[in-house]
Amino acid sequence: MDSIILHSPAKINIGLWVGRKRADGHHEIVTIMVPLKFGDYVRLSPKRSGIQVKTTGIQLNIGEKENLAYRAAQLFLQKSGIKAGVQITIKKRIPTGAGLGGGSSNAAAVLIGLNRMFDNPVKQAELVEIARNLGSDVPFFLKDVPCVARGRGDKLRPISLPALRVILFYPGFGIPTAWAYRALDRSRQKLTSRPISPKIITLKIRRRELAGLAEQVKNSFEPVVFSRYPQLARVKNLLLSKNVFVAGLSGSGSTVYGLQYATDPMADVFRSGLPWIITRSRPSVTGK
């Protein structure tokens, strides 16, 4: 049986509304999630028994069994009843704590790859259930197309978006998601903002109706994150001054992104001297 290599894409959130914490400990959210061509690579190699995870590139500084890719393989093998093992090698390019979904993407790649490697012993609905048990973002990466996400992030509806150029700024440090949610909960006594409207945002982007779009794309985490890390607010403002039509925090940070249409001239951001990552969105449901 041959090894399998899969691309494990990063993602951004075009807008993110966070509601109150639910009884199950998760928060209600509304967001648009977009997979990117920038990402990691996951290599799966069959072995007689056991699960082994190795990373190259960015080091995670976590135990092997704490890696979400390990847990994905463990749950898959349990569900399928397969007695074989797997060697997982991850070429890490997505920074941790960046709001780009690297760990969730790796877990989804493992689920997809193992199912392919062993001739699809697990049905798609069962893969989705495993993904939900691993984390709120993991089901999205099974779809690998732009989606509106609701609930705790696992209620997904694929959408069509044009090809986008995505400009990423990672500041060199991560922001723990747990801290961001605690800080957000402490900062508000009651919900005063309405959820974002994915329908309006999507239509404006598709029709190139850019007037007022930046005001529609709000992220609930930005006030608390920008208060602690004002340099990220400055990066967002810099991007908005450089011919991008939307800029903001991805997830709970720490990455700030800017969007352009793929056919537009490149935004003049390089004179700033900041370490930008330039990538594109992955194709949407219509292949646009």
Overview of the molecule:
- It is an enzyme of class 2 (transferase).
- It comes from candidate division WOR-3 bacterium.
- There is one protein chain.
- By secondary structure, the protein is an alpha+beta fold.
- The protein folds into two domains: about 5-160, Ribosomal Protein S5, domain 2 (2-Layer Sandwich); about 165-280, Alpha-Beta Plaits.
- About 30% of the residues lie in helices and about 30% in strands.
- It is built from nine helices and ten strands.
- Strands 1, 2, 3, 4, 5 and 6 form a six-stranded mixed β-sheet that branches. It has a four-stranded antiparallel β-sheet with strand order 8-9-7-10, with helices on one face.
- It is globular.
List keywords for this structure.
ATP binding; 4-stranded antiparallel sheet; Alpha-Beta Plaits; single chain; 6-stranded mixed sheet; 4-diphosphocytidyl-2-C-methyl-D-erythritol kinase; alpha+beta; 288 residues; Ribosomal Protein S5, domain 2
What name does CATH use for the topology of the largest domain?
Ribosomal Protein S5, domain 2
In oligomeric terms, what are we looking at? single chain
User: What form results from the Cα inertia axes?
Assistant: globular
- CATH architectural arrangement of the largest domain: 2-Layer Sandwich
* Strand/helix succession: EEEHEHHHEEEHHHHHEEE
